[in-house]
Amino acid sequence: MRSRLFLILSLFGASCTPVWHHDASENASPPLYTADSLPSETELVLQEGAAFGATLSESTLQAILQAEQERLETQLEVFHLRVPKDEEAVVRWLEFYKGPGLPTLQRFYRRGLRYLPTFLRLFEEAGLPRDLAYLPLVESGFNPWARSRAGAVGIWQFMRGTARKYGLRVDWWVDERRDPIRSTKAAIAYLKDLYTAFGRWDLALAAYNVGEGKVKRILQRTGGDNFWEVRRRLPRETRNYVPAFFAVLLLIKNPDVYHISLDTLPEEPWVYDSILVPAQVELKKIAEWAGTTESVIRDLNPQFRRWATPPDLKNFYLRVPKGTASLVAEGMQRTPRSHWVTKLLHRVRKGESLWTIARKYGVSLRAIARVNRIRNPRYLRVGQLLWIPVPGASTGRAQEPVVAQSWEPSKDGKIVIRVRKGDTLWEIARRLGVTVSQLKAWNQLTSNTLHPGQTLIAYPRKTSYLTYRVQRGDTLSEIARRYQVSVRELIRMNGIKNPRRIRPGQRLKIPISS
What we know:
Elements: H1 2-12, E1 19-21, E2 32-34, H2 41-53, H3 58-75, H4 89-98, H5 102-112, H6 116-125, H7 160-165, H8 180-198, H9 201-210, H10 212-222, H11 227-230, H12 236-253, E3 273-277, H13 283-290, H14 294-300, E4 316-320, H15 325-334, E5 343-347, H16 354-361, H17 365-371, E6 385-389, E7 415-418, H18 425-432, H19 436-442, E8 455-458, E9 465-469, H20 476-482, H21 487-494, E10 507-511
Antiparallel strand pairs: 1-2, 3-4, 5-6, 7-8, 9-10
Helix pairs in contact: 2-4, 2-12, 4-12, 6-8, 8-9, 9-10, 9-12, 13-14, 13-15, 18-19
C-alpha cells in the first residue's frame, strides 16, 4: 500500500491535504487556506480496483458469483434491487476489497466511525435506506477535505452548483460542502430527488456520481430501464462506482463471513459542544479560549476556509471540543470584541489609496504597508486584497490588551473617554457605534494618532448637538462635510437666511447623527 501511495504522490506532486499557499511577491494577496485540485483518494482506488478486477479469470468470477448471489440479493433487498446473475462487476470489486484493497477500506471505515452513527440516524429519520450512509466509502473515504479533479468537494463530493441548489454556502469564506452535518442533509435531499426522478436506487446512485442529465440521455438513447442494462455506456468511474458500493456493503455488513476485521461502530455519535458566537472571530482565538489547537477547531469546523469566520456571520453556532463550551464563553466575555479578530481583509476599490484606506480603518499607513509588504504605497491595484491590522494584530510590536471602560453618557448625550495604551480611533468608534470620521470631527483631530491620557468626547445618541465656532475661511459646505451633515440641516438648525454669509467667531449648532 505504501508503494502505491508513493507512486500516486510522485505522479501528482502533492497530497490532497489543505495547505497554506504563499506568494512572496511584494504586492501579493494574503495567503489563503485552500485545498489542492487533485484526484480524491476514492477516484484512485476505483481506478486501481478496476485494474485488479480485470486480472481475474472468467471461470473464477462465475464461481464466486454463483456462491455469492443469494447473499448479494439479500443485502440489496433494502434497495429493492436485483443484480443479474451474469453480472460480474460486483464480484470483481468484492475480491478487490477482500484482497489488496482491504487496507484502504479499513482506513476509510475507521475515518468514518466518528460520523456514521449520526449519518445513519439522519438517513433513517428522512425515510431513506440507512445503508446509503456508507456511500462516502466510495465517494471520499469520509474525508471532509477531499477534492476531485472535477472540483467535487467534501465527504459527499458535491459540485459547486449542486451544493448551492441544495442550500449549502460556497464562497471565499465558507464551503459548507466540507461541513459533515450540513452536507449530509443536503446529500439526503439530493438522493431523495434522484430516486423520485428515476424510481430506482441503482440509477439514482449512478446519477449522483455522474449527474442526472447524463444518465437520462443514456437511458433515452438505449431504451434501458436499469443500471445494469446501460452500465457499459456510462463513464468508467460511474461504471465502477455502483458495483463498488454494493461490494463494500457486502463486506461491512458481513465481516465475519468474509474473514475481515473492521473497527466496531461506536454507539455515541460525533461528540462536541456547540456554542453561540455573536460576531466574527479568528479560529486561533477560539482555540486559545478552549485550551486546544487551531487544527482541532478546524477539524471540528472544516467549512471555514480562512483564518476567521466570515464578517457577515452573526449569532452562529460553532463546534468546540466536548466540555470546553464554558471556557470559550468565559473567553468571549473577558475579551473585547475588537480583539476577536486581529486582522481584517480589504478589497481595493477604484479611486482608493493606501492613505484613504488607513484613514477609513483608523490605523497607520505604515502598519498596513508593513503587514502587506508594500514598498511603494502609491501603487495599488483595483481588486487587490490587503490585510488591515487592528488592535491585537502582530505588526512588529506587541500591544497590550485594552481594558474596557465604563462610558456613561451625560444628560446631553455626551461621553468623555480617556485614551488608554493600545486604544485606536477605529476601536473606540466601533465600541461606540459611530464612525472614525465622526470621532475626529467631534474632537477636531487632524490625524489618527492617539496618546495615553488624551481625552475624547463623543455623541453616540441622536438627542443632542455640538457647538462649533466658525474659523476664518470656513464655508457651510466645508463644515457640513467635516461633520457629515447636510448644508440644509445646518441652515435649518441655525436659522441662517444667507448661506454665503457666515462670519469668523459665529457659533453654529451641529446636529449629532450616528
